[in-house]
Structures are given as structure tokens and as C-alpha cells.
Amino acid sequence: MNLDKILEFDPIATAEQMGxxxxxxxxxxxxxxxxxxxxxxxxxxxHFGISLDKYIEVIESAGFxxxxxxxxxxxxxxxxxxxxxxxxxxxxxxxxxxxGNIYYNWRRNDDVSFDEVYSLTSSGKWHDRxxxxxxxxxxxxxxxxxxxxxxxxxxLPKWQYKPSLWLVHYEEHPPQDMDWQERHKIxxxxxxxxxxxxxxxxxxxxxxxxxxx
Length: 213
Description:
By secondary structure, the chain is α+β, with helices and mostly antiparallel strands. About 35% of the residues lie in helices and about 25% in strands. It contains 7 helices and 7 strands. The longest helix is centred in the first third of the chain and has 21 residues, at about 20-40. The protein is globular and about 55 Å long.
């Protein structure tokens, strides 16, 4: 089974289709997670449960450069950059990766159909059915996901469109009972603050993301 099939496999759905119990489904899921971890480790890629040090080793070996590190009470927030790829994630207790995304503007090759790219992409907005301002979860199979997109398209070094950026650490969240418009304003201010802290050459590439009003 190749990596595409391993990542696409849904153990819970498979267990249900086979009429297996919930417990069997959970066991199948545990085995599947272990299989993914071993395969991705062997390929030198990222995976769920990876330590923070190992994660940083993997991405820096792939050419990502630390653009800015933000320190919080118990965790750190990292932003890395590589040729049009903006990688942002936070740590969990400064020991492992908690969560994050990799953002991009990706142009599909002319010989790649619009329908074909659905197996490659995760989320985002298409522009003229040609350029995707999108993102991927950065925790699992990061290099694999980016490499297969790079084969079928081009990551634009200077963005033309702003993807939906979530550069917010949980300590920056406003109270839940605050008006949603005010909450959205605070979140966007967090995004802008982090973007403005990046090196000038990266800001130039992300000019479309800045609120200059």
C-alpha cells in the first residue's frame, strides 16, 4: 500500500462497513496510526505525536527557515518560511507540536485538470480555477503533501491572493461572551501583528495580506 492509500484510509468507516464493533474499530484505528507514524518516520516526514525538536529538524532539513518565534507563558509560536510557503504552528508544553497550518498560493499546471487537484488540496479559495490561496494542516505528512503539489503546480513566491490566515495563539483569544465582530477584529489584529514582525523580504512576498488602511 502506497502512502496515498495509507493516509486516505479511514479505519472507523471501514470497521462500520465490515460490521465490526466500536472496540474493533478503535483497535483498527490505533494500528493504522502506528502504521502511518512508522512509514512517515522512515521517509523523514512529519507525523502526529512527533517531538518539537524532531519536527524542527525535519522542516529545517527541508529548507524552511525560522522567520519569527513568539514566546508565551507555557508554549511558543513559530513561523517558518520557504519560497512562498508560510508555516505557522505552536508547541505543546514546548515538547511537541500542538497544531498549525502551512499557507500558500499554488498555481496548478495547465495540464492538470481542475478535478484532479481535489485529491491534492485541503482547504482554501480558488481564483479563476487556476490559483488556490489555501492551506494544509502541518502536523502530518507535511513534506509529502507539499511535494505532490509541487509536482503538479507551482507555489508562488509572491502571493497574489490572501488565504484565510489563522496566526493566533490560544492565550490571545478574547472572552467567549464578547461580540463576535469584536472577537474577529482581535483575531485579525493578532494576524497583522505577527505578519508585521516577519523579516522585510517575507513581508514583501506577503504584501497582499496586509491591512494598510
